[in-house]
Amino acid sequence: MSKKSFLIQHLRLHLNNATHGVMTSQELLGHLKKNPFVLAPMAGITDSPFRRFMREMGAGIVISELVSAQGLKYNSQKTKDLMRFDERERPVGIQLFGECGDIIGEAAKYVQDQGADFVDLNFGCPVNKVVKKGAGAAATRDLISFRNLLRKVRAAIELPLTIKIRTGWDEESRNALDVVRVAHDEGVTWVAIHGRTRTQGYSGLSDWDFIRYVKSEAPLPVIGNGDILTAAMARSRLSESGCDGVMIGRGCLKDPRIFQAANGLDTSDESVGDLIGRLGGYLLDGATGNYPKIQLRKFAMWYSYGLPEASVFRRELFSENDIDRLKSLIESYFLRVQNCIKVVPGRDDFLMGGHG
Ligand SMILES: Cc1cc2nc3c(=O)[nH]c(=O)nc-3n(C[C@H](O)[C@H](O)[C@H](O)COP(=O)(O)O)c2cc1C
To answer: Which CATH number describes the domain made up of 3-262?
Structure first.
């Protein structure tokens, strides 16, 4: 990003804070009601350019990837970079993780000062490095310390506070409903539930019957999550579960139009190549070095799944290093296949690892 556009962005953020004040829970829930299809946080994927792109493509609300509260305490520039957002993403939440309520509270205050719309806390991360410190999915095992943690973060900010959890630690301890009740007592605005236990990781399927059960008993809004691959599925999961919203992660990495279609909007007639070109522009605007190239390759690779000659295309993607040639390679491939039908297997092992 140029120095000028960086300054303009910051000026806009501060003006926005000064003129609009902080978003209330009611306002945030109003956004969810208007458009209940939420972009799931995904590390290494839902950065600011991708969130802006997904908002344009119909996502109602977007959330950053998990950001370490501890990293912020150490004033890590990398951590701060993960928290950057653009006005055009609003409503946008920043997701924090950690094990200490005081430290997460300080980080949440920083998020508020930056002008984000809400703070989301990650209690779903199954990764060993995170849970062995008591953060991520481990934080909801002991409900007394979980309550204390939430209370500290809630007291530190005025912004809406939301959380994302799994159904429980393992099959024998699926305590999502108890977690939801504590969250309600402590002033949390909504709970997003990924319908797997921590032990499951990404194996098996998201248990939507269990999500529906928790929602039916929950004293606060619930967002269901897991394995939504098409717009039709997004709509049926929403109505059958009775949830207040559904969160889509991997589904939008295969079909960039999933949110538009879920909302019943006309899907744009831009080719996928053009859509990736648009995302590429945002990536190049926001970062330097190899990062835009790495991200562009990943998205082009995911969007080509199930299309003819996709494996040859992927090999070409990874052997091309020049950004302009990479862009034209992507454009010409998607132009060639734009009238081809995608052959997507019913169930496949697509990105079976993540932080929530
Ligand atoms: C690559 C990847 C990274 C992820 N990173 C995060 C994260 O930073 N925070 C989080 O709460 N969940 C994270 N998740 C979990 C997703 O938000 C979501 O709960 C999960 O993928 C199930 O939804 P889906 O089937 O729609 O993808 C990640 C998932 C993947 C695949």
So the answer is: 3.20.20.70
